[in-house]
Design a protein that fits this description.
The complex is a heterodimer of chains A (106) and B (153). With 106 residues, chain A is mostly helical. Chain A has 5 helices and no strands. The N and C termini of chain A lie far apart (54 Å). The model of chain A has no long low-confidence stretch (mean pLDDT 95). With 153 residues, chain B is an all-alpha fold. The mean pLDDT of chain B is 95. Classes of the chains: A mainly alpha (106), B mainly alpha (153). Chains A and B meet through α1, α3 and α5 of A and α2, α4 and α5 of B.
Chain lengths: 106, 153
């Protein structure tokens, strides 16, 4: 018998992944276009890339954890096919923004 | 030591790519009998990617500057200006996807068609991005080689 529900962590961290993939790309643009952002990221850990990775991973954990607590701890209620579309769109958009930014910046 | 780090980085990246491809095929044929293997493969893919990421990240932060200088002075500056710059950032999305794979694979894929589609989508993205990372890495290495070859003897 088909059961098309997924766990709350699957939904919550899927949404978080989509958000963080785009946030990752926006952070690239912010860092590359603003000297002060790049300097602050450099100073925070000693290397801008380490700070960048740390920010994205903390956001991923934080968003996933927060989403899982919605609806009285049951997590967001969205159809799995829609979740798949959101994960795919977020990840592809994040990567394409990075690839396109360096084409345009170069 | 630097060479061992670089080779391990590539090895674990390829390990992630192969494991994810195996996982993809297994999920296409998911049933009660291969669920445990699918979950094991999803965890292995995540561990391989984390190892590749941490080792590559360490090399990038500690050792890459000398290679970067060689690339920028050589005939293939694009190997750094485009390929390294994009690789160091899109692999963060790859890391998130690989980390998410075991979470998505924890559902009962034998009876849940929509969950199977989700895992197939994530696995396909991991495989494509891992392949892209391998290609970018090859171009960066070639950029260093071209830079060294271009130096006057």
């Amino acid at each position: 018998m088909e059961n098309n529900a997924v766990s709350k962590n699957t939904t919550s961290f899927g949404l978080s992944l989509a958000l963080c993939a785009v946030a990752n790309a926006l952070l690239v643009i912010a860092k590359e276009t603003s000297r002060s952002v790049a300097n602050r990221m450099q100073k925070a850990t000693g290397h801008h890339w380490v700070t960048h990775v740390a920010i994205v991973l903390v956001l991923f954990g934080l968003f996933g954890w927060s989403f899982a607590r919605l609806n009285g701890g049951q997590g967001p209620k969205i159809p799995v096919n829609r979740l798949t579309g959101i994960v795919f769109s977020g990840a592809v958009a994040g990567v394409l923004i990075v690839l396109a930014f360096y084409v345009l910046a170069g | 030591m630097k060479e061992v780090l670089l080779l391990s980085h590539v090895l674990f990246g390829v390990g992630c790519l192969l494991t994810t491809t195996w996982l993809f095929v297994d999920v296409l044929n998911a049933h009660e009998g291969n669920l445990a293997r699918i979950r094991w493969l999803s965890r292995a893919a995540a561990v391989f990617l984390w190892l590749a990421f941490v080792i590559g990240g360490y090399w990038y932060v500690v050792d890459y500057k000398a290679d970067k200088d060689v690339i920028l002075k050589g005939p293939w500056p694009l190997a750094h200006n485009y390929f390294m710059e994009t690789k160091e950032h899109f692999v963060i999305t790859l890391l998130l996807l690989a980390t998410y794979l075991p979470i998505a694979a924890s559902n009962n894929l034998a009876v849940n068609r929509d969950a199977r589609r989700l895992v197939l989508c994530v696995a396909a993205l991991v495989a494509v991005l891992a392949l892209m990372a391998e290609g970018h890495g090859a171009i960066i290495s070639m950029g260093v080689k071209m830079g060294l070859l271009a130096k006057p003897i």
